[in-house]
Amino acid sequence: MLVLAIDTCDSRGGVAxxxxxxxxxxxxxxxxxxxxxWLLLAVNSVLRDAGVAMxxxxxxxxxxxxxxxxxxxxxxxxxxxxxxxxxxxxxxxxRLQAIAAQAWKGAPFIAxxxxxxxxxxxxxxxxxxxxxxxxxxVADEMVIAPGKFIxxxxxxxxxxxxxxxxxxxxxxxxxxxxxxxxxxxxxxEPVSPFMVTTIGRIGMAQIQKGQTVDPLTLDANYVRRTDxxxxxxxxKNS
Length: 238
Hints:
By secondary structure, this protein is an alpha/beta fold. Helices cover 37% and strands 25% of the residues. The strands form 2 sheets. Strands 6, 7, 8, 9, 10 and 11 form a 6-stranded mixed sheet that branches. It is globular, with a radius of gyration of 18 Å.
């Protein structure tokens, strides 16, 4: 299967073209250039490098969040347009799932997080199933203070071991609550923020299982409400 994957959830996104388990071409977003300008140029570069036409791509994989509102929208809008024009299937993948997929699988639970700005992290807790390959999300993804996330994980996991992974490990380690996890000999595994290849492989597996998304209902997973919503609610309550 020939799959085009894109991740525009934060400034460390990318575009990758994969055929089965092989990466044919990849470009990381390593600048401050807006995705509305960068994305299509990067896609053209990846396709040209691999000698592939867009019409040959068999499916699309897109990171659906969490992340910046503008970035996530750029990726989703682009994939929706491709799906409509070329009639190819689409898979949506959470960036947190991609982080968890790269964590050490020797613990019953996997906690994944990334910088959510505003002294918060985007975070999710997964249960590692007995096969060592399947991850089951325990609850909805969240945006939360680092210390509160650590406390939440501790409350769910109890005396069971937790594997921690993050693209922004320093944020969690800096929280006072992290000391309790260190005493349990748990470590936080840094994960590269450039995850488009992992996202592509997860999405490809979903497509092969028939777990595709209708482009018309493809939606962003922002987790955090927009500033406009926050301001509106504040005005209603004032």
